[in-house]
Amino acid sequence: MHARWATAGLLFVLLARGALAARLELDASPEAYLAHGVGWDALQRLEEDYALGEPVVIGMRAAGGTVFDVETLAALVELTRRLSELPSVQEVVSLANTTALARRGDALEIAPLLPPGKLTPKKALILGERIAAHPFFRSLLVDENRETTFLLVQLPRNARMQARLQTMAKIRAEADRFAASHRTIHLAGGAVTKEALTRSVLSDVTFFLPAVLVLLSALLWVAVGEWPAGISSLLCASAPATAVLGTMAALDTPLNLAGTGVLVLMVVSGLSQSVHYLHEVRRQHGRRGSPRGRQERHQTLLSAVEAVAWPAFLATALASTCFAGLALVTSGPWRSLALISALALPLVFIANHFLLPVLL
Fold first, then answer.
1. Extended strands (E) in the chain
2. Residues with Cβ < 8 Å from 329, sequence gap 6 or more?
3. I need a labelling partner for 313 at 20 to 30 A (CA). Which of 99, 160, 253, 321 fits?
């Protein structure tokens, strides 16, 4: 009876921690590996002094034609306006809003390169001539064949990953509005790379993690011979990982790419210790015979713990010490990987040698 209550309690804790872990953010920023390294402080000062943000480059390509026509420029003006109105976008630079020094009589002023008013073929031609004569924009905003123009979108660099994903989804949706049979839209930049990495990892976790759990349940059933023991082993292997993720979510600490490896480490380590313990239980059964009462069963479970706990403790202590030593590295993701592993491995040991016997 106590095993059923313990299993029910563990399931409740796992569900509660799992619901909390669902709020955990994944930070796939590659620059996290450079934090606190050589030149990092100088880069941070440069970004603060010049208000540099996260770049997104949108390419609008009129294949076989030119971007300096009324239809393409009208689409570009509207896309620039829509992106500029997004609250999470700092700045947008395109042919539609670029400015340059211009002479007005005897004075110099900053004026837009695109003539104001309704777009006409003549104004599109004037803009093309001004861009071609500009020493900077002629290579920044258009390609050599004048078939592609680029919009430069700047996002806040210190935005949270979830907010960044939402912003990228809005930018992509707005850009796709202007795709046509004769006009294609392309996105590039650091924010796009981070979005692809994050969505790829989230997709893998969403699909493969349940599939792996189902497969492991079947394999444990075959290896142990009793499906309750296999399920209990799987619950004990999942408990430390769920506890760590839930705690990180509660502390509002994002999970980086290196930290995702801790989940695999914890599950593999937990399952290996569970399999060793369950096989020792079966060996005890073979030596003593099947237990006839609750007292004999408890004695068998305790004997199995005594047989495997000390070697597992030494292995856990050695691994945790090695990971704790890696916490001295300067790379943020690797340091968090080392710290999480050093704290998580003892949880794995406790779950498999104190909790698993109770569930059985």
1. 26-27, 54-61, 91-93, 99-104, 107-112, 148-155, 184-188, 255-256
2. 335, 338
3. 253
Burial 11-28 (b: 16+ CB within 10 A, else e): eeebeebeebbeebbbbb
User: In 3D, which of 163, 191, 359, 341 has the Cα closest to residue 266?
Assistant: 341
All residues at 6 or more sequence positions from 265 whose CB lies less than 8 Å from its CB, including other chains: 341, 344, 345
Residue with tokens 């809003």: 97
- pLDDT tens digits along 19-70: 555 666 667 666 666 666 666 677 777 777 766 777 888 998 988 788 888 8
- Minimal CA–CA distance to 55: which of 187, 148, 160? 187
DSSP 141: T
**Is 256 exposed, middle or buried, given 0-12, 13-18 or 19+ CB atoms closer than 10 A?**
buried
Claim: this prediction has a pTM higher than 0.90 = no
Q: Tokens for 61?
A: 């390509």
Q: Point out which residues pair with 149 in neighbouring strands.
A: 60, 142
User: Would you tell me how many other CB atoms lie within 10 Å of the CB of residue 260?
Assistant: 16
197-209 pLDDT per residue, tens: 777 777 776 666 6
Distance, CA of 36 to CA of 166 (rounded, Å): 28
Which residues partner with 102 through β-bridges? 109
Per-residue CA distances from 242 to 3, 52, 245, 248, 315 (Å)? 21, 37, 5, 10, 22
Any idea what DSSP says for residue 353? I
Q: Where are the alpha helices (DSSP H) in 134-226?
A: 137-140, 161-176, 190-224
What is the C-alpha to C-alpha distance for residues 194 and 3, in angstroms, rounded to an integer? Answer: 45
The 3-state DSSP class for residue 317 equals: helix
Rounded to the nearest 10 degrees, the angle between the axes of helix 161-176 and helix 190-224 is 120
Of 246, 266, 238, 268, give the one whose Cα is nearest residue 359.
238
SS3 state at 17: helix
